[in-house]
Design goal:
Strand content: 15-25%
CATH superfamily of the largest domain: P-loop containing nucleotide triphosphate hydrolases
Helix content: 40-55%
Low-confidence stretches: none
CATH architecture of the largest domain: 3-Layer(aba) Sandwich
Number of helices: 13
Shape: globular
Largest sheet: 9 strands, mixed
Number of strands: 11
CATH class of the largest domain: Alpha Beta
Structural class: alpha/beta
CATH topology of the largest domain: Rossmann fold
Mean pLDDT: 83
Radius of gyration: 24 Å
Length: 340
């Protein structure tokens, strides 16, 4: 259940059907949870209510040759990288178990959740933190290419800086992928219209935009026409909880706007889309809990989480001592050295 309006619809359904038992999925309710649970307690006096949660996520994926083929075609590699992540259940239990995870694992999760979304099944969003150099861009670009080629779905990537957007599109072009574009303030109005035409005609499948660009379009069809969104990626996701509180207020409203887009597409297309967030920086738990704050701000649905290992074994800091001359060559700096 997503908000107060859903609760009202829920009550109406009970009145008309009068069931003996009710199973409610409450984990992704984004309204006032205390009030919501108080309402459920009142209903429980009349009807048996069972609150359900999805099963705990387990590592493991189904290999698809298509993913490796895309990797080989555009990146020139035969195998995916691995990087270290924390096992979240062990962290919550007070331990620190480290696992190796393949890029392909996360790629599979993204694609599977999009396919679940299209089928009308229960879905989970994706939350990834990984160090610089782990290949975060590949992890969402390969699903974007796959989803476009197989289902004609559009991927929107929300990025904070024009330079980052331009570099991502340029790098994809150099890898012989020409269906990625960016719309930002550096683009002329004429070129923007040309890019919008490419999106609506299906010649662009990955669109990089800023949150300001997304929020400035009251109707998403002005930007994407009749295209169906499969995936929305929030790159550098820590900005939602940092910049959104400071000098980029559009990040503060980003989650509410994406939530609205989900409902619009669900009404028009019969299904919504998946959100995947990527960052190298996200504090987990504690006073400055960026992880849960980001989930709340973006209204993520019970995200499958990969929390990257913090320590970097490939970085070395070396400090050399420089001798300091204490002799007569060092000037005696005092107030008498300066003119009055």
């Amino acid at each position: 259940m997503q908000e107060e309006a859903d609760f009202v619809a829920f009550i109406r359904a009970i009145i008309y059907t009068l069931p003996d038992k009710i199973f409610v999925r409450t984990y992704n309710y984004i309204g006032d949870k205390e009030k919501f649970h108080a309402h459920l307690k009142l209903l429980a006096a009349q009807i048996q209510i069972f609150c359900v949660r999805p099963e705990k996520f387990k590592f493991g994926f189904e290999h698809r040759d298509d993913f490796t083929e895309i990797l080989k075609r555009h990146w020139g590699y035969d195998t995916f990288r691995t990087f270290k992540v924390y096992d979240l259940p062990s962290i919550d239990a007070g331990e620190k178990i480290i696992r190796d995870v393949s890029q392909e694992q996360i790629i599979f999760d993204i694609v599977q959740q999009v396919e679940n979304c299209m089928a009308g099944d229960n879905i989970q969003d994706i939350f990834v933190t990984a160090p610089t150099g782990a290949g975060k861009s590949v992890i969402f670009q390969i699903p974007a290419i796959y989803l476009a080629e197989k289902y004609n779905l559009l991927t929107i990537v929300i990025s904070p800086l024009i330079g980052l957007m331009n570099d991502q599109v340029k790098n994809l072009t150099l890898k012989n992928y020409r269906q990625a574009e960016t719309i930002n303030s550096d683009i002329s109005p004429i070129l923007k219209e040309q890019i919008v035409e490419k999106i609506t005609s299906g010649a662009c499948d990955i669109l990089y935009i800023s949150p300001e660009t997304l929020l400035s379009r009251s109707d998403v069809e002005q930007l994407i026409g009749d295209r169906t969104i499969g995936l929305v990626v929030i790159d550098e996701a820590h900005i939602v909880t940092t910049w959104g509180k400071q000098f980029r207020p559009d990040y503060w409203y980003l989650g509410d706007h994406i939530k609205k887009l989900r409902k619009i597409q669900s009404n028009r297309k019969g299904h919504s889309f998946i959100i995947a967030t990527f960052t190298a920086t996200a504090i987990y738990r504690g006073v400055e809990d960026m992880y849960n704050e980001t989930i709340a701000a973006l209204h993520l649905r019970e995200p499958i989480t990969y929390l990257g290992y913090v320590k970097r074994g490939d970085i070395e800091i070396k400090i050399d001592k420089t001798p300091f001359d204490k002799g007569e060559n060092v000037p005696n700096l005092n107030w008498r050295n300066f003119p009055t």
